[in-house]
Backbone:
């Protein structure tokens, strides 16, 4: 049994650091086997008395230590595994530390590590302590000057944050570069990169007329794949100027692609390091989805330059301060890019596509998290391992909490609040509460006497609130009364306290519209204005609003635009949902109505299969789908969203107890039935959205058509239409872009029973074996194929192209199988396989292992036999002698 459980760190225990760090000078002598780092740190007393100086370190070998130029002997300091304590005798002093680290032994990909023969650093959240002894916390900000020395042939390029001051050759084939970053920063934003790269660059003029050099560095030979990335970066810079009034504050902004990377990308000041998957793209190798993801991640990291870097977090409990806000900003950037050149309802519908995708992600990843053992507020109260708190809650729910502030303040008010935030806090390390206060200052001006006192609770309350809706209509005086009632049941550790702690009500902006029986909008008069959509401020447990001059019994359109991260409880008939599906003028709510209808149908099928009764598909449901398919007013991108069935994982969340195999059966059955019943329109849709010979562009309109075409192909394959396999094969072999190629191959992998599928997979491998990102897709396709078993995955793991050390590859095969192949994973062998892989990954990369460990957080909600089997698999992990603190925290919470 494991003995050393990591201590729990609490938000309330925050203490300011007793010293200011005025200057950091780092000398790197790079060598993959052993790198020597000489650090010179200048400190100034910040507390009222002299206190011991505590520095963090991990996997470092200390060579020497000097205080104000005098070497310290081991009796003069305390050194243990993770801290070094020095006792300064003056308020202002310089500490010189020489230490060694071993990049090529560093498989955690935190600190300084080797990837593809190059050297990279990753310091967020606590990686800098693997580089040198340091006050590795975000509220200690300093100016950095960095000298890098390395072999010139092996590492022709030496990069760090800021500006390049000098570069020169040294003896013995080595060279050096000196970088200086004029902006004070916390250690988590430090970066260093060394190696051989292609570089694509462009000089742009920022709004004030300054020149800025934008550069994208990638593997030698991949220059042709960085055009899109540089274009995304340029658009990000322009967008932040035009929409948020924020100008680039650097002369040089660099992005570097790494093949081994734990996350998506990292916003190091002026030197972003990216997972290559979010940099490299061309028509032959990247799908439309990859192009959009690159745009989102490049935007996200760039936007951090202001929201995260200029104003940073006081401590890691405030992570959502930068992440929630920056996710909100990247979501808005992507939505604006989709709506470029459009206006009115067309622009709204284009933006809604992004909103739909974001809400789907939230429901898929965050809602279950908020209902499970890892539930935490967007500003967590405690953690054992901060790496475990880069969660959907902190990021995605955090973004929803920012979005609600945007809704409450309006665009202009939100901009004013943000300007106030920068006015107050530029250059500082602050808290979520500081952000809310800046926003509140504008809100209180707009709404005299009101505050964000209740709104603030979103930062401290876990769980997805439920909003019960009831509506009554009085024909005699043409009034309609809407009552909203909120409750937020206990989640996670809250369930352990008896009696359960009551959770106070939240401030929920609830957007509402009313439709007449003919589907037309019924304007609502609220706060003196008449509008088709109004926003109700729900601040108490229960509130009612009465609207007058409503000429008929209305059908409500609820939580338009998904105005709050809540679950709406309102019983309504499928007939009303069908009406909303056809007429709701809010494109988000319209999609929601179609999804709800589909969920009702799917859940009825799950039940039928569970009871062994004949499955039936409601002809009205098919009718609704037909009318959507034939609706010429919808864009292809929107139509593809509205006609997609809820994912199996989303549906699984709705079954009680969770019934994975029933969900698989029901999903497949409904796809087959929809395919068969609508064969002609699917076929027509397929052909109408085939772009012929036009050269590939990743623009929203043509990628929308490809998405819809591929959806049609899947329905036709599901229905075993006689032409479908030929269409899929032709699409695969003749494709002139990766979206079509993957669309064809994926349809085959999911539905074909012929040997053609295996041949196509072999052909794909042959053709793309040199391209790691494409081969990731090849592994993923097989991981999620319905026929794939544990045995097949084990066979793929011994394929020469598979490596557990590369996070992208592990995610492509292992994570995809465990998370998205319900049929394959929910078997006794599946669970044992999952536990084995968590333990195997934990030996080399605890951050990644802990993510896989979370796959069955919700084990207790499964029916038997899954529940007992999952419990056993979790126990098996818990019993292992040497778990990392990362995995240990996850497993112990799951078993709590
Ligand atoms: N701040 C980054 C996320 C990130 C966090 C940790 C990392 O290393 C383990 C890497 C990146 C972002 O939000 O993009
Ligand atoms: Zn971020």
Residues:
């Amino acid at each position: 049994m494991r003995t050393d459980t990591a201590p729990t760190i609490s938000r309330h225990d925050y203490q300011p650091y007793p010293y200011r760090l005025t200057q950091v000078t780092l000398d790197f002598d790079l060598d993959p086997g052993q790198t020597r780092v000489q650090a010179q740190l200048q400190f100034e007393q910040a507390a009222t008395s002299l206190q011991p100086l505590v520095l963090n370190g991990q996997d470092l070998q200390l060579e020497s230590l000097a205080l104000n130029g005098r070497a310290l002997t081991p009796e003069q300091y305390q050194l243990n595994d993770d801290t070094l304590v020095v006792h300064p005798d003056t308020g202002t002093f310089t500490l010189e530390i020489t230490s060694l680290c071993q990049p090529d032994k560093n498989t955690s990909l935190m600190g300084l590590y080797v990837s593809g023969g190059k050297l990279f650093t990753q310091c967020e959240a606590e990686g800098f302590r693997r580089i040198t002894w340091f006050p590795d916390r975000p509220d200690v900000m300093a100016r950095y000057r960095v000298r890098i020395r390395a072999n010139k042939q092996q590492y022709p390029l030496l990069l760090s944050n800021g500006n390049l001051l000098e570069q020169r050759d040294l003896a013995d084939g080595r060279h050096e570069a000196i970088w200086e970053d004029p902006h004070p920063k916390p250690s988590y934003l430090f970066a260093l990169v060394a190696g051989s790269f292609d570089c694509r660059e462009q000089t742009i003029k920022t709004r004030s007329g300054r020149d800025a050099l934008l550069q994208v560095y990638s593997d030698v030979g991949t220059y042709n794949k960085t055009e899109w990335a540089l274009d995304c970066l340029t658009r990000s810079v322009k967008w932040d100027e035009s929409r948020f009034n924020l100008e680039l504050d650097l002369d040089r902004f660099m992005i570097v692609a790494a093949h081994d990377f734990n996350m998506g990308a990292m916003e190091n000041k002026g030197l972003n390091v990216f997972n290559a998957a979010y940099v490299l793209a061309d028509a032959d190798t990247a799908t439309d989805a990859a192009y959009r993801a690159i745009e989102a991640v490049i935007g996200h990291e760039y936007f951090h330059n202001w929201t995260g870097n200029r104003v940073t977090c006081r401590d890691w409990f405030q992570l959502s301060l930068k992440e929630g806000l920056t996710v909100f900003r990247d979501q808005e950037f992507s939505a604006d890019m989709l709506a470029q050149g459009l206006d009115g309802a067309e622009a709204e519908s284009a933006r809604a596509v992004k909103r739909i995708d974001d809400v789907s992600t939230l429901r898929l990843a965050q809602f279950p998290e908020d209902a499970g053992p890892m539930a935490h507020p967007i500003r967590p109260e405690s953690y054992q391992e901060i790496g475990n708190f880069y969660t959907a809650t902190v990021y995605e729910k955090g973004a929803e909490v920012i979005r609600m502030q945007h809704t409450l303040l309006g665009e202009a008010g939100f901009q004013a609040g943000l300007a106030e935030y920068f006015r107050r806090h530029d250059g500082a390390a602050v808290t979520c509460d500081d952000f809310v206060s800046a926003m509140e200052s504008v809100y209180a001006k707009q709404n005299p006497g009101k505050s964000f006192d209740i709104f603030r609770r979103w930062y401290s309350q876990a769980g997805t609130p439920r909003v019960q809706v009831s509506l009554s209509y009085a024909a005699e005086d043409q009034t309609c009364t809407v009552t909203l009632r909120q409750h937020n049941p206990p989640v996670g550790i809250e369930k352990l306290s008896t009696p359960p702690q009551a959770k106070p009500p939240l401030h929920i902006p609830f957007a509402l519209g009313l439709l007449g029986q003919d589907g037309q909008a019924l304007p609502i008069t609220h706060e003196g204005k008449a509008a088709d959509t109004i926003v109700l401020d729900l601040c108490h447990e229960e509130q009612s609003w009465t609207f007058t001059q409503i000429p008929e019994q209305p059908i409500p359109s609820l939580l338009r635009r998904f105005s709050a991260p809540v679950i709406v409880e309102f019983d309504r008939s499928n007939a009303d949902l069908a009406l909303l599906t056809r007429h709701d003028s809010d494109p988000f709510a319209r999609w929601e109505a179609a999804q709800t209808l589909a969920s009702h149908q799917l859940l009825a099928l799950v039940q039928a299969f569970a009871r062994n009764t004949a499955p039936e598909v409601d002809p009205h449901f098919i009718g609704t789908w037909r009318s959507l398919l034939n609706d010429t007013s919808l864009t292809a991108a929107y139509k593809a969203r509205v006609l997609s069935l809820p994912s199996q994982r989303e549906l699984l969340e709705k079954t009680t107890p969770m019934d994975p195999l029933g969900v698989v059966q029901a999903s497949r059955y409904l796809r087959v039935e929809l395919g068969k019943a609508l064969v002609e329109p699917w076929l027509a849709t397929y052909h109408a959205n085939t772009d012929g010979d036009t050269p590939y562009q990743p623009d929203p309109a043509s990628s929308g058509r490809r998405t819809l075409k591929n959806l049609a192909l899947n329905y036709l394959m599901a229905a075993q239409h006689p032409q479908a396999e030929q269409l899929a094969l032709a699409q695969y072999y003749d494709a002139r872009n990766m979206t079509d190629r993957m669309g064809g191959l994926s349809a085959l992998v999911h539905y074909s029973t012929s040997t053609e599928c295996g041949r196509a997979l072999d052909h794909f491998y042959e053709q793309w074996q040199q391209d790691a990102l494409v081969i990731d897709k090849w592994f993923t396709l097989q991981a999620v194929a319905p026929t794939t078993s544990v045995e097949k995955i084990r066979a793929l793991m011994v394929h020469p192209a598979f490596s557990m050390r590369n996070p992208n590859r592990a995610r492509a095969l292992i994570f995809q199988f465990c998370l998205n192949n319900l049929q394959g994973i929910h078997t006794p062998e599946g669970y044992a396989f999952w536990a084995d892989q968590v333990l195997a990954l934990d030996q080399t990369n605890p951050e990644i292992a802990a993510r896989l460990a979370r796959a069955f957080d919700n084990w207790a909600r499964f029916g038997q036999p899954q529940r007992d089997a999952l419990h056993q698999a979790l126990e098996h992990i818990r019993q292992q002698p040497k778990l990392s603190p990362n995995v240990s925290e996850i497993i112990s919470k799951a078993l709590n």
Q: What stands out?
A: The radius of gyration is 28 Å.
